[in-house]
Amino acid sequence: MKILAVIDMQNDFIDGSLGTKEAEAIVAKVCSMITDPSFDAVYATMDTHPQEYLSTFEGRHLPVEHCIKGTDGWKIHPAVAEALKSRNAEIIEKPTFGSNILVRTIAEREPDEVVFCGLCTDICVISNALMLRAQLPDTEIVCAADACAGTFPDKHDAALAVMQSCQITITQEDK
């Protein structure tokens, strides 16, 4: 079984309060991966914060309101949402970087391979990939580098290097 994990492809991370041109650039690639029939199942996460975000631990360390539940910034990018709908993807809200629910749900399916894509490489993608690596030590885990973007290009590259050190395969198609 081959699973795709789409991490936090939400408006605030693409063209909103924490958006980047690199995030905007991966939307089409992520949509293409979601609709790829070689994946047996697709899961997606949504960074989900309360109105009081700035008073949380994360909010005190990253004082930029983002992904406040119910706002336009919290919603999944429209093109990505449409692709996810076409695959009947399971969407999991998460209050922090990594999702225990995502990891448990994927692990229960006992996949042969899990591929990660999405945002942000250096925060939520790496957190979930490493959590899954700990849960499934003998499973092929892949990060599609060209379908991820970090908070900054150098942070993206650093996260890829760390994942590779932890035996997560890094792939990137020739451009």
Going by CATH, the architecture would be: 3-Layer(aba) Sandwich
Question: What structural class is derived from the secondary structure elements?
Answer: alpha/beta
List low-pLDDT spans. none
- Biggest sheet architecture: 6 strands, parallel
CATH superfamily: Isochorismatase-like
What's the number of structural domains? 1
Give, in order, the helices and strands.
EHHHEHHEHEHEHE
Strand content: 15-25%
Our Rg estimate from Cα atoms comes to 15 Å
Number of strands: 6
Number of helices: 8
The chain-level mean pLDDT equals 97
Query: What is the subunit organization of this protein?
Result: single chain
In the CATH scheme, what's the topology name? Rossmann fold
Strand line-up across the major sheet? 3-2-1-4-5-6
CATH class: Alpha Beta
Q: How far is it from the N-terminal to the C-terminal residue, by CA? A: 28 Å
Q: How helical, in percent, are the residues?
A: 25-40%
Shape: globular
